[in-house]
Each structure stands twice: as structure tokens, then as C-alpha cells.
Amino acid sequence: MKFQPLADRIRPTTLADVVGQPHILGESGLLRRIIESGNIPNMIFYGPSGVGKTTVASIIAGQTDRKLYRLNATTASIADIKHIFDELGTLIAPNGALVYLDEIQYFNKKQQQSLLEFIEDGRITLIASTTENPYFYVYNAILSRCTVFEFRPVEAQDIEPAVRRAFSLANPALDVPNAVCAHIATACGGDVRKAMNAAELLANAARGNTVTLEDAQQAAQRSNMRYDRDGDQHYDILSGFQKSIRGSDPDAAVHYLARLLEADDMVSVCRRLMVIAAEDIGLAYPQALPIVKACVDMANQLGLPEARIPLADAAILLATAPKSNSGIVAVDAALSDIRAGKAGDIPAHLKDCHYSGAAKLGRGLTYQYPHAYPNHWVEQQYLPDTIKDAAYYVYGENKTEQRAKAYWDAVKGKNK
To answer: pTM (2 decimals)?
Structure first.
């Protein structure tokens, strides 16, 4: 008898048995209502592994009385789709076909475009799944013909009953403490399949009739870490990291830092901390830049695990520091003008005059040297004539920038 994993043996056959996804499969969920209507459109299921995408596709095929074809884009080709198309209307697929194409992001542009002629025929309904953001990896021609549904990691409290059921099916005689089920449900990182696989492994390896928490901890190990340095999780965690620091939440900042370090991604941490110091703290606390650079240098010299200490110091310092984005706003405004063609010739008095013949060209003749004047400032034009009144920098409301503003207002005679 061919071995069938426990996760496949207990795969739900009705929507009521599907674990998680209440936002789309709950009583008022849009996907649930579409499935119950029987009028199934072309769809893209987007989400991490083990959260029910394949299960829901199988349920749809069963409820619509269509033959389900499963393909994986890592090994499938357009020839496989053509073969399915040839079977339409025969005894093999009399009511049309539902094609479940897993990992569609691995189809190149030409392959994805070739799908169009088949799905537009109407006799093939496409349900494509992807663990990557479809708006980055699926071409617009396919996206415009499909409805995207996001599947989310399943909450631990929803997985726990499924874990207990898995143990009971694998070995009804086992004594499984509640702490074991709770640990597996939490450690699987929202991946129901991982939880089922862990339960099956523990049931098969149990000594006597008891599953211990120690065994469960070894089986789960770091399985709750969802991380791919080239995928959504990488950028989502980094985004959460920066936005938590920007939002002055040191607890969340340390949480995301820990997730990045646990995934051994110190390079991304160091780079992002330096970006944050300049972008989000900036001129409100200029000392943050050299301090963070020193922390990053120290971390790179120490290496993990000790590197976590200066990196945590840097993250907490930035999260609790005053904030200003006046620098990035100013340079982006200037870049916008440059890209729009608003530049103009550099004023003659600012041009280089350290060569013979510069005077004949009128270069630098009327330049006034600021250090020769009180407070090292003299009024003169610096921007090109075409944008001489442009204002890019606006002083931030923090104390540091306001002190600078007050100083220069007084020097320039504007503090009246």
C-alpha cells in the first residue's frame, strides 16, 4: 500500500472543516459565497505554505463536479495545459476542468501569457496559487482576468484542535498532554501542514503511550520561522522593523530585530538601521548617525550571537529618539525638480574660477566669501535663476532644528 502522509489523509473535504481563513471563508466571506454559488471565476490564491490553498481548490472541484488537474509551475509546461484542453468534453472531463497551478510565479511571461487562450475559452477554470506577492510576480494580463484571495497564517488556537485530531487518528492509544498540542500549534508558524507532519512524526516516534513536551520541542525546532531573503517575508519583516522604529515603539522594534537575527540576516539589519538613522531620525538627533554606525561596526566585528547587543542598543536608541524626515523630504523635492527638467545654469559667481581665463568668462567675479562677514553669512543667490525662489528644506518641529532655525532667522534678519 502506498504511503500517504497524515496531512493528506485528514485533508478537509468541506469548507466547514477548513482550519482558519475566516476573513474569506467565514459565513460572510466572499470566497465562501462564491464557492457556494457554484459560479467559479479564475482565481489566484496568495499566501504561505500549509494554510489551505490546495485544500480549498480540491473542495471547489468536488462541489462544482469538475475534474481537478493539479500542476506545479516548477515542472509543468504549456504542453501540460494543452493536454488538459484536449480532454475537455470527453468522458474524462465532460463538465470542463479546474486547473490548480501551484507556484505560478515560476511560469515566465511567455508561459503565463499562453495561459490566456485556455482560460478565456471558458471550459477551463484556473486557480493559481503562489507564496509570493502576485502583484510582483504575476503578469497583468493574468491578474486582470483573476480574482486574488489572500490566505493568511492560521492562528495557533485554530490549529490546536486539528493537532489533537491528528494525534487521535495517527494513534488513538497515545496520551498527548495539552502542552504538547499547544506547543506544536504555536511553533508551526501558522502552517497547518507543518503541524500535522510534526504530530505524525511524534506519534510514530513515541516511547510507550506518551508524547513528551521535550520531543515536541525537538520536532518543531525553529519551524515557526517563516523567512526567505528574496521573498515577501524578508521585506515585510524589514518594513515592520523600520515602521516600528519610526513609530517610536521600542518593543516592536526589538521583536522584529529578533526575527531578523534568528534568521541570521544581520546584513539586512545593519543596512536598515543606518537607513533609519538618516531617514527617520535625521536632523532631530544628528548624533544618531555616528552612534548607529559605531554599533553596526561593532556588531560586524563581534559577529553573532554577541552582535545582538549593539544592534539592540541601536534599535532602541532610534526608536526612542526624536524624529525628523526633513532631510529626505528636502532631497526628494529637489530630485523631483531635477527630473522634471528644473535645473538651470549655475550662477556665474558660484562657478569655478581657479584657472587662467576664468575672469574673462565672468566666472566668480562677484562671489562674496561668507567667512569674511559677521556670523559667517552674507546674502547672495545660490540657486540657478530659473528656480531661485525654490524652497526644499522645511525645518522640523524638534528642538534641534528649531534651535537652528532661530539662529539663522536672527542672523539673516528674519527674527523680528
So the answer is: 0.68
